[in-house]
Design a protein that fits this description.
Length: 155
C-alpha cells in the first residue's frame, strides 16, 4: 500500500463479450474466471474478492489501493484475458466489447455484492438484476485486436 495512506476502495466491475455473444461457457468460463482471479491476486495493490457472470458478461469484485489507475487496470485485465484465453484454447474463443462499468461501494456492502455476483444466472433469469451493477458504457465497439503486450499476468 502507498506509504502514509489509508484506503478502503471497494469496486464492482462489469464488462461484456463482443456483440454480447455467449463466449463464456463451459471450460472457457471456468478458465477466464480463474485467470481473472489469479491476475488480481498477482497484481500489487489489488485484492480479489469475487468473480462471476453469465455467458456474455463478467462481474468482478476487488479492492484496490489508491495508486491503481482503474482504466489501465480494466484494460489490461480485458486484453490479457482475451489474448491468453485465445492462445490457451488455440482458437478465437474470447473477445470483449470496448466499454465497462465500475461502481464503488462500502465495506458493509461487500457480502451482498459478492452474493449478487455469485448468483448472476439466477438474477438474469428471474429479472432481479441491480441496474447500477449491470451498467456499462460504449458497448457497441469491440476491443481492438489483442496483442502479445497484454499477455502474462501480473499486470
Amino acid at each position: 500500500m502507498a506509504a502514509h495512506a489509508y484506503s478502503e476502495i471497494f469496486l464492482h466491475f462489469t464488462w461484456h463479450t463482443a456483440e454480447n455473444q455467449p463466449m463464456l461457457t463451459g471450460n472457457v468460463e471456468a478458465w477466464v474466471h480463474d485467470y481473472l482471479k489469479n491476475c488480481c491476486r498477482q497484481t500489487s495493490g489489488v485484492y480479489f474478492d469475487d468473480v462471476g457472470g453469465t455467458s456474455d458478461h463478467i462481474h468482478l469484485v476487488a479492492r484496490i489501493e489508491p495508486q491503481i489507475l482503474i482504466s489501465d487496470f480494466v484494460q489490461k485485465l480485458k486484453g490479457a484475458s482475451s489474448h491468453d484465453a485465445n492462445e490457451h484454447f488455440q482458437s478465437k474463443v474470447l473477445q470483449w466489447q470496448r466499454g465497462y462499468g465500475v461502481v464503488s461501494f462500502g465495506r458493509r456492502n461487500l457480502p451482498w455484492v459478492k452474493e449478487y455476483v455469485q448468483n448472476q444466472r439466477m438474477h438474469h433469469t428471474e429479472e432481479t438484476t441491480v441496474e447500477r451493477l449491470e451498467a456499462v458504457a460504449e458497448m457497441d465497439d469491440v476491443v481492438r485486436e489483442e496483442s502479445a503486450e497484454y499477455g502474462a499476468c501480473p499486470i
